[in-house]
Design a protein that fits this description.
Radius of gyration: 21 Å
Number of domains: 2
Number of strands: 26
Oligomer: single chain
Strand content: 35-45%
Number of helices: 4
Shape: elongated
Order of helices and strands: EEEEHEEEEEEEEEHEEEHEEEEEEHEEEE
């Protein structure tokens, strides 16, 4: 049986090179309401960026983040530590602020815009170390990420926000916290009792398990150097997601089980454009999509590569309506916007 054609289609231009479209997608389980932003990446004046609150562990409605950053439109991005710190799980690179957070391994599959204007989906890994003199003390397992994995050392900078060490060590007993200010060790304490509600001053090095033992050698007054970056030095903007949906025009997921609201980013390299898509779900009027259905939708729109971003109650698309009034265009399944840590957004400045 041939696929049913989309219905109730609406579309308008948001800015030069940026269009908005919404429609109802017939699926075997019922109708799904889709919203989509299509952006020409070679359009002069149109910029793609990551947006987030001032602190990594802060969350806010996407509409608030868009307005505060003077952006036009966007969608929610990475999955996050919703029950505790609020921090995004993966890589976050901002056009203006640079690398903000990243793990060395684990949640690293990312959508990337590089310094040449090329987009791709790749594994982005943090590469970082702590050295004293010419001696490497430790490798970094993450910078400003919500969990310190067992037997690793993480770094938390002023971008993290409130210290609250207990939230990132998951109840571990063997923990050590080293405070470094201007390259000098200011304190070295044991345990997760370092629960300051004040913003991080300097950098906190937090070790668990053997990572805590490693940090024991640092003495107050020692001069240390922290260095870190990404495995791909050309990254200009990046956010992470959970599963690659399309790879070289082939479905890259077999997950055809659960129906949920979805958010995704797709790359149409042939036309030098990307799609940001939000599918509503968990309602009588919009059932949601499986990951396979989401991948098929992206493929039908001409994307060769696509990445699944945070879905469920987080799925949000903010854009101006046809009269230019900015607002939430989809219907979030929580009944209102869920506060989130970051999004993918567009802004436009007339060249």
């Amino acid at each position: 049986m041939a696929a049913l054609a989309p219905t109730d289609i609406e579309t308008w231009t948001v800015a030069p090179g940026l269009t908005y479209e919404e429609w109802t997608q017939p699926e075997p389980q019922g109708p799904v309401r889709i919203r989509m932003l299509t952006a020409k990446l070679n359009q002069p004046g149109l910029l793609l960026d990551r947006v987030g609150a001032a602190s990594v562990r802060d969350v806010a409605p996407l509409s608030s983040l868009v307005v505060a950053d003077h952006d036009l439109a966007g969608v929610n991005a990475d999955f996050f530590d919703i029950a505790d710190t609020g921090a995004a799980l993966g890589v976050g690179v901002d056009r203006d602020r640079g690398l903000i957070h990243a793990p060395s391994t684990g949640w690293n599959l990312s959508f990337v815009l590089d310094k040449n204007g090329t987009t791709r989906i790749e594994q982005l890994n943090l590469v970082g170390s702590v050295t004293r003199g010419t001696t490497k003390v430790a490798s970094l397992g993450g910078v400003n990420v919500p969990h310190v994995r067992l037997d690793t050392v993480n770094a938390y900078t002023q971008a993290w926000g409130r210290a609250a060490v207990a939230g990132v060590v998951d109840g571990a007993a063997r923990v050590r916290v080293v405070q470094v200010v201007s390259g000098v060790v200011k304190s070295n304490v044991t345990g997760a009792s370092f629960t300051s509600t004040q913003p991080v001053t300097g950098t906190l090095l937090i070790g668990r398990g053997s990572g805590a033992i490693t940090l024991r050698s640092l003495q107050v007054g020692d001069q240390v150097k922290l260095s870190y970056g990404l495995s791909d030095a050309a990254v200009r903007v990046a956010v992470s997601g959970s599963a690659q949906l399309l790879k070289n025009s082939q479905l890259a997921t077999t997950d055809n089980g659960e129906l949920h609201p979805r958010t995704a980013v797709g790359i149409d390299a042939d036309h030098k454009q990307i799609h940001l898509i939000v599918a509503d779900g968990r309602s009588e009027t919009s059932t949601g999509l499986t990951l396979v259905q989401l991948a098929e939708l992206m493929l039908s729109r001409g994307d060769e590569n696509a990445l699944n971003l945070d879905g469920g109650g987080s799925s949000t698309l903010v854009a101006p309506d046809a009269t230019g009034v900015t607002g939430v265009r989809n219907t979030p399944s929580d009944g209102q916007e869920r506060p989130i840590p970051e999004g993918l957004v567009f802004r436009y400045s007339k060249p």
